[in-house]
Amino acid sequence: MPDLHGVFPYLVSPIESSGRIKTDVLGQLCDDLIKAGVHGLTPLGSTGEFAYLDSGQRTAVVQATIEAAHKRVPVIAGVAATATADAVIQAKSYQRLGADGILAILESYFPLKDAQVEAYFCAIADAIDIPVVLYTNPQFQRSDLSLDTIAKLSTHPRIQYIKDASTNTGRLLSIMNRCPDMKVFSASAHIPAAVMLIGGVGWMAGPACVVPRLSVRLYELCRAGRFDEAMTLQRGLWGINEAFARFNLAACIKAGLQFQGYDVGEPVPPQPALGPEERRIVEKTLSELGSLATG
After folding, report:
1. Catalytic site positions
2. Which of 168, 174, 172 is nearest to 185 (CA)?
3. Fewest CB atoms less than 10 Å from the CB: which of 46, 218, 279, 288?
């Protein structure tokens, strides 16, 4: 199985108002991100608006990403469902398409107990032969993964990674202490350099779509143990997280990519697109990061 580490941008899902996925735009974005040095690609993460796409659209996004990557970097495809059977079908389908791993997301309407949460993720892992990355985001999930559940899931041979977006870095350290074989990816809600310092292996995040080279540079500094330099860069990069936290994430990333020349379209309704003032703030933030990159 591949050893996953480094910067994995959560890709946007470029889409026309008619609902057609702009596979050519997605392919160009993937190619440019790989050339910028990212270590992998994640279609259908939160930034990919998975909750707003139908089955055909999600398949088109995953297939276009796999074709664009052309085995240069691993593709970790997002799977999300309220029904276990649906999640298993998605995971099997994306493995057949050539995905190198699955980012497993649990959606729920009614609350679930730990046993049902564990069973959901085990069913996905049992159905495929590629690694599973657990994804937990308490802001949006009705049923989160408790530390006990994560510890049990970490014993599954294909559940080797977790991407936690809790904003609680202490929780990440608890996971590392209790599950020494579980590798932890940061989210943009955390400070990636701090997560790397305590033992993280990288981060999966939407902002890496618009600042891939700086993200890769930050990762390389952390891997080299040059944390003074890493924190200097991290302080500069944190402005993008602060700006994006104020607005809809997918809308921000799509607006940022539009500024960079990618015709990715607007967020899927009923999500709002950014207004003129919000776009100005995002553009100003990216311009400042451009100065950071040249510096």
Report:
1. 135, 163
2. 172
3. 288
